[in-house]
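The data are quoted verbatim here:
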Amino acid sequence: MNEICIHVPSLDNQQTVEVAVTVNGKKQLMNYRVESFDWSSGVDPVHRIERLRGMIESYDSRWELVQIGIPDGHLVPVMFRQRVKEPA
């Protein structure tokens, strides 16, 4: 199992949630960020999808896409996880 689900409070853009996970006594810190994507802008669904794709592709490369949430009104939550640096 590589994923677990944890309920976190609502976040504003650019806020980060830190989660500490301990596996077999080894602690690892994981950072998550949720961005709100405006889904109401534009009538054409294809245009909306292209804008969302562009936002994800141009996002800070130190973060990876984890989940695209369900639209809540006119906003779609997009969750990113900070990439873990491999030990040197």
DSSP finds one helix and four strands in the chain. Helices lie at 45-57. The mean pLDDT is 83.
